[in-house]
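Progress note, project year one: complex with guanosine-5'-triphosphate.
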Amino acid sequence: RMANKYMACRNDIHRYDAPFMAVYKSLIPAEEELEKQRQLMAQLENLVAKEWPHAKLYLYGSCANSFGFPKSDIDVCLAIEDDDINKSEMLLKLADILQSDNLQNVQALTRARVPIVKLMDPVTGISCDICINNVLAVVNTKLLRDYARIDARLRQLAFIVKHWAKSRRVNETYQGTLSSYAYVLMCIHYLQLRRPPILPCLQEMDPTYSVRVNNIRCVYFDNVERLSNFGSNNRETIAELVWGFFNYWAYAHDYSNTVVSVRTGSILGKREKDWTRRVGNDRHLICIEDPFETSHDLGRVVDKFSIRVLREEFERAAKIMHQDPNPSAKLFEPY
Ligand code: GTP
Ligand code: MG
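Model obtained:
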């Protein structure tokens, strides 16, 4: 495996920039879809404000982090600063309110790992999950969105990688593969490590944004308009980056010893995180550190079977990028 680490990029790689850009553009949601999301959000804000005047509603996940595909469901967090709320009671109350406002399929899932109310809006056709006080997700959504504003190549690469992962069915955490959130972090990390770098490490810069959530200090530089030229010394294009990303995860990443860390913009050792052995169900076979919940490994869902599936898919993708005559189609062939 390691011999392949130095596999050179094919010399006709730029022929594939235009086809990959076309795939990327076909995946961007239309403006009218975003408008519908805003419309539903406004309706929900209205309903919530009547019952809980001090509560706030935030979008999080792919509908707000700028890595969303068309027709995605929206994720909403109801934030309320009140120490003695009972989440289950509140979700049931919320479900009642939504039901009386003609929203469809309203269901309170109070026993889920993240308790939510689900609903479907018959006017816009959008489905929505509402959780309570999952503020860390709101903050990491902002971090991803801020990274996307620095260099357009992040959004291009992440859309291609997410589309590949969904087509190849390696974006299913309940089957031991990785979440979309994990894939976007892998893309950010890859671009932080380019030389010259395409993305900075926002958490290592002088902070301009600071919040405290569940005793975790979330601080980073968020004046990203100032960084719009950051990656301009690096001229790599989308096809090269897709090639390099898969080549890295197929042949160059040291799965046994290392952790990728967007927080530090570097590769850490498993040892220093104490992620060297299985603890409970967390196996740490591929390690991706959450940028704020640093004890959280987004690879923890991967087991000894799914790690093989994942690595075979990374190798398949790397080979396609290396030699297939039509990589922008072949990469996404359904599994
Ligand atoms: P798609 O729905 O696949 O398009 O992507 P998504 O961006 O909505 O991603 P996903 O469903 O993986 O995650 C939703 C949000 O949950 C993320 O954007 C994070 O803000 C938050 N999140 C925080 N921790 C985790 C985690 O351990 N796993 C996942 N999946 N999400 C997390
Ligand atoms: Mg989602």
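The two ends are 24 Å apart (CA to CA).
Residues 31-51 form the longest helix (21 residues).
No further modelling is planned for this target in the current period.
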